[in-house]
Design brief:
Two copies of one chain form a homodimer. Chain A has 556 residues and is α/β, with parallel strands linked by helices. Chain A has two domains: 5-308, Aldehyde Dehydrogenase, Chain A, domain 1, CATH 3.40.605; 312-507, Aldehyde Dehydrogenase, Chain A, domain 2. Helices cover 42% and strands 19% of the residues of chain A. In chain A, helix 1 (5-21) packs across helix 8 (149-167), helix 3 packs across helix 6 (125-136) and helix 13 packs across helix 14 (362-376). The radius of gyration of chain A is 25 Å and the shape is globular. Chain A starts with a helix and ends with a strand. At the A-B interface, strand 3, strand 4, helix 19, strand 19 and strand 20 of A face strand 3, strand 4, helix 19, strand 19 and strand 20 of B.
């Protein structure tokens, strides 16, 4: 087989250095600029367009027809792509046939092949970006950066961890000690053994960002991977599977180490895959409800979940109200709040937000934020770049339910409305709904409202807000949290409270970096300490249960 | 608080070096010789005797009376010790109070305290050895070595892994990159967060060897530990808890970070502890049946199990029949086969075992082994040192059931019988029962017979035996396996087959080292690949799920 390790050794070494130093490093550029990428921009679009209204051929065993139904949130028209429909028994048999040779391949060679797959994904980032855009509703720049290079970097990060963990186990050792007057000398061999077949279940809104790391961590440690995309968002991961299979084939390996199982919302297959006795590992990104079902039903299987939660912002004081309103306003709008890291609940002190020597009332603070958002969304072209489109009809229903509530309780501080996308007149769009609530309304805000529904919550004091936000994170799950305060003691209390709740905290962030941005190699994503998920991108525990160690020892 | 890290830094460094090199290293001596230990020998016995017929005081919150009923397998008399009976709600409340300060203690300081606890256990090895002997039935030398220094070394090994894993996460980093034309600089802080309360459930026959590592791994990573010993074998872990609490107190820490919950067979408490929502981690050593119950019922809790299985010996050929018979004979007798690593099923080729140029028939091979065993057990004093006593009446019932089967199916190749223990005339003893079976009798041998029940199984060929043994390991669980062969190709097939089944293999081991011996720092114990357990002593995955990482980032 082709050895790709040396080709990528320098990049791997940089990744290894950076998962330790946690400094900033990007092997790939996340700007989709034509100046950087040249004709790859147009080639990617053409490649995407050529996929439409065609069967997506994968040459997989067990193909018994076609399935799949995706609708672009931008055109609200079907993509018209169908994917192999699979006889799972036949597919799993083929995967079992592929496993022994892959298991026997050295970790070094496996990591080399995986590095090449990441490289291949990167070369096809533009095609992938259009696929992400027209399934998830992300704007094109986000679909490129977040679904392409940033996701590939998280895959690389998982690979670096896999390599480091596997390197901790020597292949052999000589062991010698006396028993009584006799010296006993043993040669010991330690084999890294994969668990077998891993199922990676990807989500509808960020399919690649979580699935790439899981795919890489599984494959590098010797497992085979079955990718089960969300039925609304198949294409991005179908492309990832196709590219992985191509690299495996070119390397002289069995392509069935990476396979796709597509399904539809009407005939879902995730539970079938989870229930199969020979599914050994499950990686899941998606709803908290299904994540909990998996945790209850995947007895004895190694399970990694990332679901969602209730991310809070606690405002105590600032010396830069304008910057705060711009930065936080952007974060509340970004991708129409369809991200697992999006803030949802903004706590504003009833007695007023301290701004320098002044104090802004709840209404003044809320107004400043609403006006900032309105400013951001005033220009349709700019609004399109920030909001993107709404991934599904169901999310519009969530917004409608929230509006109805707002008409009877609390106050609608900003109403949701469609906006006219300049390029796609039929796009499914909605600007954010902002409800003004009281801290006593936790029956309303203390749960996830996935989509453009935001709560501004009046609290008696910043510390009351902090306690409530941390409690919600613990009980409902949270990935990120945000605090603004010029009071070092309050910041420290916020750090303690959110650490205790297992929600990462960003303090006083103002500027062009999206608040929700999580950098590969540096930002740990999901703590595993609350219902938002049990796995972290990427720590050692994301990787080292995926392989086991078996030894043999021989008398010398 | 007292800082013990520097005191133990050199020992920790040696442990760190050795978990990587897997070479032989023992910080402690596992011989109970008076020449080495001087008056510690007598002091340990006196300390044990002073514990008898007394309440075991622990000064734990929630004590509402006394419980516990242990019977010495050597005297068949009650030990007469009672332990605190606990109101779990009160105890857990006290543990919750102890957690924040321990969590805030640096990993360095925590590891220092844990090293001191291991040292304290070591200083009290003789007292512990008598406690192990008179609860488990182990012979005194085994109770000292396996229950003392060897168990302490596995605790140290877990500590080294905990330290290495925690060291992989820097406390902070500076991160800087451009967004557009703006340079964004963040200071990031990474906190190691324990999960909370860990329950360590110890077993009846080897209480300390598995529980010490779990206790250390949990405590070092910032969790509190509730120890729940087997109701038949409380004293060894009660001593471990008492010593740990003493060290914690001396260090100025809350002793409730390590507590004991004792129970009786009539009123067991393990399920109550597992079901408590604030039990976050479960470590279990014991029966496969209860282990499976835990895996089905510990939803979402981090669970580490080590149960048991069917360990096989496959005989193909040897050039040292006498050595083989002595070494294997000893292993079949050691501690009356009450070890999770004891061989149970010995496969002998029907066509004959090749010995040099000759071939021994099944009967000749079986006879050689039986005679070797009879020789080992001829002298009561020597027999006592090897067999020890039978831990419980229930194990005698297992032997009786096997005898009854042997009278109707297969053949009794060696009958079980009590032997007269030279020191303890009332000891509960039984020499091994050996049944001759056919490979088609897998309804009889393909399950665990815990205690002195051994099967000699006639196979058509060594490869048929290998296939059956590996299948049994996969389906019923196995920790160790053993093969004897002078044929390099057969050895390779055995290595592949048992690796695939997740059972460690010892090849051609002949000599004074007990076959079942597993060395801390070098031998991985339990692969996690079959029903014999999901955790390995000790790899990185035994440790690094016990803590999580939460970050906060601040604009610079």
């Amino acid at each position: 087989m082709t050895d790709y390790f040396d080709k990528h050794a320098e990049r791997l070494q940089q990744a290894l250095d950076t998962i330790q130093s946690r400094a900033a490093w990007s092997p790939f550029t996340d700007s989709p600029s034509r100046k950087i990428h040249g004709d790859a921009v147009d080639k990617g679009l053409a490649a995407f367009q050529a996929r439409l209204h065609q069967p997506f051929e994968l040459d997989q065993p067990g193909t018994i027809g076609y399935t799949g139904f995706e609708v672009s949130p931008y055109t609200q028209e079907p993509l018209g792509i169908v994917y192999p429909k699979t006889d799972l028994d036949v597919l799993y048999k083929a995967i079992h046939n592929a496993l022994p040779a892959w298991r026997a391949t050295s970790p070094r060679a496996r990591v080399g092949v995986c590095m090449e797959i990441v490289e291949r994904w990167n070369q096809n980032s533009f095609e992938s970006a259009h696929a992400v855009m027209h399934t998830t509703g992300q704007s094109f720049p986000m679909a490129f950066a977040g679904g392409g290079p940033n996701a590939q970097e998280r895959g690389l990060e998982a690979l670096a961890h896999a390599w480091r963990e596997m390197s901790h186990v020597l292949p052999s050792a000589t062991w010698e000690r006396a028993f009584g007057s006799t010296q006993v000398k043993l040669q010991k061999h330690y084999r890294l053994m994969p668990r077998g077949i891993a199922v990676v279940i990807a989500c509808a809104t960020f399919p690649t960002w979580n699935a790439y790391p899981a795919l890489m961590a599984n494959l590098a440690t010797g497992n085979a991977v079955v990718v089960k995309p969300h039925p609304a968002t198949i294409l991005p991961m179908a492309l990832a599977v196709a590219h992985a299979r191509a690299v495996l084939r070119e390397a002289g390996l069995d392509p069935n180490l990476v396979t796709l199982v597509a399904d539809t919302a009407a005939e879902p297959l995730a539970k079938d895959l989870i229930a199969r006795p020979d599914t050994a590992i499950i990686d899941f990104t998606g709803s908290a409800q299904f994540g909990a079902w998996i945790e209850q039903n995947a007895h004895g299987k190694l399970t990694f979940t990332e679901t969602a939660g209730v991310n809070a912002v606690v405002l105590e004081s600032t010396d830069n109200l304008k910057g705060l309103a711009q930065t936080l306003g952007s974060a509340l709008c970004l991708f129409s709040k369809q991200m697992c890291t999006s803030p949802q609940n903004v706590y504003i002190p009833r007695q007023g937000l301290r701004v320098g020597d002044a104090a802004l009332s709840f209404d003044e603070t809320a107004n400043a934020l609403v006006e900032s958002i309105n400013g951001l969304l005033a220009e349709p072209a700019r609004a399109a770049g920030i909001l993107g489109a709404i991934q599904s009809e169901n999310i519009l229903n969530v917004v409608e339910r929230a509006r109805e509530i707002g008409q009877t309780r609390g106050k609608i501080l900003r109403d949701a409305a469609p906006y006219a996308h300049p390029e796609f007149p039929n796009a499914r769009t909605r600007t954010p709904l902002i409800l003004g609530l009281d801290i006593s309304d936790d029956d309303l805000y203390a749960r996830e409202w996935f989509g453009p529904v935001i709560h501004f919550i009046a609290a008696d004091t910043p510390d009351q807000a902090l306690a409530q936000a941390a409690r919600d994170a613990k009980q409902c799950g949270a990935i990120n949290s945000y605090a603004y305060s010029t009071d070092a003691a309050f910041v420290e209390r916020a750090q303690d409270a959110f650490a205790d709740a297992g929600a990462n905290l960003s303090v006083n962030l103002i500027g062009p970096m999206p608040l929700t941005y999580a950098a590969a190699f540096s930002d740990y994503h999901v703590s595993g300490m609350n219902p938002a998920g049990n796995a972290t991108l990427t720590d050692a525990s994301f990787v080292n249960g995926r392989f086991r160690i078996v030894q043999s020892r021989t008398q010398q």
